[in-house]
Design the sequence.
């Protein structure tokens, strides 16, 4: 137990350690990984005084629970969920102090998918290729959390330490004022709109502009590797034939023979053998992380 | 914009065209795998701010880049000097991979090549392969070197589990599976040499692009 700061009581369906990711290794077949909803995760880190890219926990849909083994500073952002500290309600989108021995329980996500839990000091697990992120596809980084696992946190910067006993009073509550791009700042749309550019494989469709305005339903097989788009509102058309595998960027909208596109996200394979007909604009990648299975998604094609 | 061919120096130039892949990435089309490898090597020697330079079979993706800056660089590049510029001063890395040639598809390949299994082993160990690019999984390197007449198909139905260290062939490529995974390549044997090792002092991918590879029967 020595040196451990947090005990995992319940890991929910899937909780992984994520940070800004390990970019720069795609030539070795290594995905960038990292926070799927980057703006919400960075916000959690800022709230507890961490560098934006510090390692935090990314929970999925069902929530999780932790016991603080020492007093810790915590912030919970992203998907909307009930937060309880020893049974008492705690806020999302604000830093709060958890006394030693207290349990923090994140409830099931009411909206959105990924709730982020940031601890002051960041989660300290051994980095792999410069990042503490779990890559579920490539099998790099720490394994998904399991109950009973203990986590170490990094050293905490001074202002918080000095104010521990009166911590809550030193933090200005956000009063629900959130950065515009984080989850929870604006209501969840009825249809998620994703802006896309024509992709390097756009010539595999007869007319790439036909993608503009097509609506889909997010598939239940969606995960950190990709957002699956099903039940297209208009028939998609694609040339027959095979292509040589090409490298892919995050946000690639790949159109397989099934005509059900996949939007590749942080843990995506670095190369792919089906045409990439569109690429989601970087600013809308965080939206992809928030789409629940069954949600409606519409593509908006940017030109030229 | 996408799909539009852009010729640098005409059909004989090594850059056949460029295609956008989002705001900050460009897919560069080249004639073959060797060109892809050499272009990737050359780009890495240039003063170009970018996140990734990723070669593949006939393309190089440059990600996290100012695309107009990259476009200008490519236009200024004299493809005739490519081979010399890329290889100049860079020591060629050579690796030997010991293989136990007892793979489940050894006889399939032998039948395909109309030779005895022993001849498959002899041919495979006589070749010098070069790693051109990685993909599919961390450290999974596509090795070029099989003559076109010896190309083999993939399995109709991929195996659900190929063991780590399996040595396989597909089309004209050879590869070593870094970890257990599903796979459709024809398996010749296995190696106990790790091709993905995070602790390796000179980098985790034993067969990183540019590496010359020989297989040795054990």
Sequence:
């Amino acid at each position: 137990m020595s040196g451990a700061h947090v005990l995992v009581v319940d890991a929910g369906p899937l909780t992984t350690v994520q940070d800004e990711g390990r970019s720069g290794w795609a030539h070795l077949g290594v995905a960038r990984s990292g926070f799927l909803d980057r703006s919400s995760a960075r916000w959690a880190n800022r709230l507890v005084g961490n560098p934006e890219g510090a390692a935090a926990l990314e929970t999925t849909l069902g929530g999780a629970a932790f016991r603080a083994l020492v007093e810790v500073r915590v912030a919970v952002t992203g998907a909307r969920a009930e937060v309880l500290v020893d049974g008492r309600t705690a806020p999302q989108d604000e830093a709060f102090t958890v006394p030693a021995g207290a349990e923090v329980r994140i409830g099931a996500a009411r909206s959105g998918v990924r709730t982020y839990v940031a601890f002051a000091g960041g989660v300290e697990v051994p980095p792999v290729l410069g990042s503490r992120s779990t890559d579920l596809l490539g099998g790099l980084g720490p394994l998904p959390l399991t109950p009973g696992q203990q986590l170490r946190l990094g050293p905490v910067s001074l202002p918080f330490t000095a104010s521990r006993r009166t911590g809550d009073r030193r933090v200005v509550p956000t009063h629900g004022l959130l950065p515009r791009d984080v989850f929870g700042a604006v209501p969840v749309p009825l249809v998620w709109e994703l802006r896309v550019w024509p992709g390097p494989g756009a010539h595999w469709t007869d007319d790439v502009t036909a993608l503009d305005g097509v609506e889909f339903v997010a598939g239940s097989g969606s995960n950190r590797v990709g957002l699956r788009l099903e039940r297209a509102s208009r028939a998609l058309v694609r040339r027959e034939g095979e292509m040589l595998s090409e490298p892919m960027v995050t946000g690639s909208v790949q159109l397989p023979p099934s005509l059900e596109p996949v939007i590749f996200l942080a843990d995506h394979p670095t190369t792919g053998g089906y045409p990439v007909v569109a690429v989601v604009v970087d600013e809308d990648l965080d939206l992809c992380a928030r789409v629940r299975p069954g949600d409606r998604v519409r593509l908006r094609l940017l030109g030229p | 914009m996408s799909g539009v061919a852009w010729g640098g120096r005409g059909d004989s130039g090594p850059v056949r065209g460029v295609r956008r892949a989002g705001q900050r990435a460009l897919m560069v089309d080249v004639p073959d795998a060797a060109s892809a490898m050499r272009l990737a090597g050359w780009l890495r020697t240039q003063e170009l701010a970018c996140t990734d330079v990723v070669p593949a079979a006939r393309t190089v993706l440059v990600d996290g880049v100012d695309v107009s800056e990259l476009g200008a660089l490519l236009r200024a590049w004299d493809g005739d000097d490519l081979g010399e510029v890329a290889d100049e001063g860079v020591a060629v890395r050579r690796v030997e991979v010991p293989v136990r040639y007892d793979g489940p598809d050894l006889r399939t390949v032998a039948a395909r090549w109309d030779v005895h299994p022993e001849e498959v082993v002899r041919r495979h160990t006589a070749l010098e392969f070069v790693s051109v690019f990685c993909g599919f999984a961390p450290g999974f390197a596509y090795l070029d070197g099989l003559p076109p007449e010896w190309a083999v198909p993939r399995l109709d139905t991929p195996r659900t589990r190929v063991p780590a260290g399996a040595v396989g062939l597909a089309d004209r490529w050879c590869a070593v599976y870094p970890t257990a995974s599903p796979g459709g390549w024809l398996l010749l044997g296995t190696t106990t040499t790790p091709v993905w090792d995070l602790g390796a002092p000179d980098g985790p991918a034993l067969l990183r692009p540019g590496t010359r590879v020989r297989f040795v029967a054990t």
Q: What stands out?
A: The first strand of chain B starts at residue 17 and ends at 20. The interface with chain A takes residues 1-3, 19-25, 27, 40, 51-61, 63-64, 133-140, 179, 198, 203-205, 208-209 of chain B (CB under 8 Å).
